[in-house]
Amino acid sequence: MSDGQSGLVPGAEATAPLAKSLDILTDRRKFLLGTGLAAGALALGRPVRARAAGRTEITFASAKFFGKETMAQVVDAYNQAQSKVHVTYVELPPPSSSTEVHQALVQQLARRTGTPDVFTQDVVWIAEFAGAGWALALDQYFDASVRSQFFPGTVAACTYKDKLTALPWYVDSGMLYYRTDLLEGIGAKPPETWDDLVATAQAIQKSGKADFGYLWQGKQAEVLVCDLVEVIASNGGSILSADGRSGTLNDEKAVAAVQFLADTINKSKISPSDVLSWDEEPSRQPFTAGRAAFLRNWSYVYGIAQDPSASSVAGKVGVVPLPHFAGGKSAACLGGYQYGVNAATKNREAAIDFLTWMSSPATQLHFALQLGIAPTRPEVFEDAQLGKEQPFMKQLKSVFTGATPRPVTPKYAQVTLAIQSGVSKALVTGNIKAELDAANAKITSIVAA
């Protein structure tokens, strides 16, 4: 997820600590490869390369992910698994703070110092980073036979101007979580349409079994765009025209979809007004605390919801595709972070070795089991252990692989800010059409330039 943009943006000062962490690593690398390390090597009568038992040093910057295991532990496993490369891990904020993650990466990649050597990126940043020349083309390292081992859709998402500029890591999409016991209590089935969801949510609220009917993410952040893509696409609408040269956020179907979101708060009252300030975790917590009937969120929630130590509704949660409008089809926003290699890295072979390990079937299975994130390799979905421990992934395999992308444009960083601002104003003020007209005009001026 990305809600930053190239260059400085309001609030960019929040990224200073992150950029400073990467700066320290850059300075440390210069020192180690410069006079400090050289002098030490000469004094000991051995080549510079002798440091760290001859290992090549690289850095890996990634957003923080929640799960049973941390990314740092996975990186440590790689370091222990071989003796050629040593990876220093730099932890960035979680994807819910994607503005900060994006800005930290932009500031570093634009300097072309080679740090970080490897990074993880939201799928919507791929075109931007590749177009700026910051991401290394990977075709020569991962040929057609290797690329064929990943889902075609994720490979396509990692491709810019016919070149592979990112490597698939994981795929994700929005989905609907529901309380199986509450639906059974009123004799209801999981909703297929938004009207069904409203009726069921209201009935459960009326019964007094839940405080909230439906929780979603309305914070002025990237997740709002994700929720928006889903509800608009489920009504047959879109945010950009097919050629990507103009906005369609103010057409009839898009307006009706945004009005529906506003109505969940003000009309049907199945959502609290607090959703307008919530991203993923604040919306997840009331659900796993047993206070809500339905929740729109990502795949990571499943593992938490079924963990008795973290959830009061363990064993009472189901997952289905998101509802749609009458005459429409269910739509799930394509999410997921992918790997990238800094075009300025001085350690290409080491970076590729690390990515080969990180993208292997065994490591993807590990990520699925420990962090609850879906593999981009079809073969991993067929693993017996995955089927036993994360059965919902197999159930929603078609949802993961057929998800709806956010607007595809090299100018996405600017487009998403315009969407977030305009839709947030529409939801807060209730002036849906007027605010969407204004936002659409700004979007069109961005993509048509």
Which SSEs are present, and which pair or pack?
Elements: H1 16-33, H2 35-44, E1 56-63, H3 71-81, E2 85-92, H4 98-111, E3 118-122, H5 126-131, H6 144-147, H7 152-157, E4 159-160, E5 163-164, E6 170-173, E7 175-179, H8 180-185, H9 194-207, E8 212-215, H10 222-233, H11 252-266, H12 280-288, E9 292-297, H13 300-305, E10 317-320, E11 334-335, E12 337-341, H14 348-358, H15 361-371, E13 374-375, H16 378-381, H17 384-389, H18 391-395, H19 397-401, H20 412-429, H21 432-447
Helix pairs in contact: 1-4, 10-11, 11-20, 20-21
Pfam families: SBP_bac_1
InterPro entries: SBP, TAT_signal
Family: Belongs to the bacterial solute-binding protein 1 family.
Structural features, described:
- Belongs to the bacterial solute-binding protein 1 family.
- This is Multiple sugar transport system substrate-binding protein.
- It comes from Labrys monachus.
- This protein has 449 residues and is of the alpha/beta class.
- The chain folds into two domains: 226 residues, D-Maltodextrin-Binding Protein, domain 2 (3-Layer(aba) Sandwich); 194 residues, D-Maltodextrin-Binding Protein, domain 2, CATH 3.40.190.
- It is built from 21 helices and 13 strands.
- It has a four-stranded mixed beta sheet with strand order 2-1-3-12, with helices on both faces. Strands 8-9-7-10 form a four-stranded mixed beta sheet, sandwiched between helices.
- Helix 1 runs parallel beside helix 4 and helix 11 packs across helix 20.
- The radius of gyration is 23 Å and the shape is globular.
- The chain starts with 15 loop residues before the first helix and ends with a helix.
- The N terminus is likely disordered.
